[in-house]
Design brief:
Radius of gyration: 15 Å
Number of helices: 2
Structural class: mainly alpha
Shape: elongated
Helix content: 40-55%
Number of strands: 0
Oligomer: single chain
Length: 64
Amino acid sequence: MENRTARLTILIDPEKKRIFEEVCAANDLTPSQVVRRLVRQYIIEHAGERELPAWLKPAAKSGD
């Protein structure tokens, strides 16, 4: 798993930010947790042939 952090600054309109924060809170998540999850999923879906660290690779799906 990651053991360091780096800051990512984004610009978003105030109304979207307010709604996003409300939805995050309603799901007992911080906005940072949600953004990290979204970034991780985006990387997994769009990495192409790049070699990803083991902790970033998608979980194997069972055939059950």
